[in-house]
Amino acid sequence: MFKKLFCGIFGSENAGNSVKTLRKPHRDASVEEWRNFINRAGWRQIVQIRSKFVPFAFGEEGKRDEQICNAMWERLFRIEQPVLDYDFLRSNADKIIFVGQCASNVCIKHDVRLSYTGEVKFVVEKGGKLRGFALSEDLILAGVTCCSGFPASALKKTAEWGFHLLSREDSRRVEEVLPVLSEMMDAVDVPSLRDVFVWMLAVPDGQIGDPYECYSLRREDRFSYAEFDDPVVAVCKL
Asked: What is the rounded CA–CA span in Å between residue 144 and residue 147?
């Protein structure tokens, strides 16, 4: 029964885990070749390349390298949703809430609300694509960006993805389950909250952001702020 559930996807071009290691382009390859590679490669590979990439500062080489650096940032400042392999799904079926293929966020929330039993669960499409982590019947964490960006970028990108930043109440729930959640994020090889101690909160409607309120695990009162030019990670929910 379980195998039949996935046979329509596994074995197709979408089969397997979507985290890939690819051959890196030559340092002098075109920007287009670099962009194609960056968009197809796994996030860990891009992190390694970005950490060692020293861009030229001037001239045409500098402009070219700036475009490559921007492409790497765009790749890393997003929520990872890999396609999980069959063996993982089978061995962790009791920890998963399965939802429809390409299900809308509204449908996913409905399914989670009906299925949630109190424990943190993976939320996975029937074809194997990770959609997030159910932390409660009403809170589904989509994930966290691997790198930081300015608050305006966090707001813009989150809206483009159809996600939302966390509220303070959401963040308290994240903190409650953080050890288990971090292990689960590591298990599916997505950027984890294990070493994240501050994240930006949602901006209430009608409120001007700067300074932006943050949730800080380093502070006893959990209050912190970020200005417009402070780097923040985006922790997103459906």
From this structure: 9
pTM of the model: 0.88
Strand, coil or helix: what is 173? helix
Mean pLDDT, the chain cut into blocks of 10 residues (238 residues total) = 46 44 88 94 95 88 92 96 96 97 96 96 97 98 97 95 97 98 97 96 80 96 96 97
CB-side exposure of 179: number of CA atoms within 13 Å?
Answer: 0
Picking from 2, 51, 45, the residue whose alpha carbon sits closest to that of residue 24 is 45
C-beta neighbour count of 233 within 10 angstroms = 20
Instruction: For residue 63, give the 3-state DSSP assignment.
Output: helix
Residue 93 per-residue DSSP state: G
Closest by CA position to 133, among listed 190, 214, 197, 76: 190
pLDDT score recorded for residue 12: 35
Instruction: Say how many CA atoms lie within 13 Å of 230 toward its Cβ.
Output: 15
Instruction: Give the residues across from 200 on adjacent strands.
Output: 214
What pLDDT is attached to residue 110?
A: 97
How far is C-alpha 93 from the geometric centre of its chain's CA atoms? 22
- In terms of C-beta density within 10 A (0-12 exposed, 13-18 middle, 19 or more buried), how is residue 227 classed? exposed
pLDDT on residue 129: 97
Long-range (24+ apart) CB contacts under 8 A made by 171-180 are 171/199, 171/201, 171/215, 171/222, 171/235, 172/222, 173/135, 173/136, 173/139, 174/135, 174/141, 174/235, 175/217, 175/222, 177/120, 177/135, 180/120
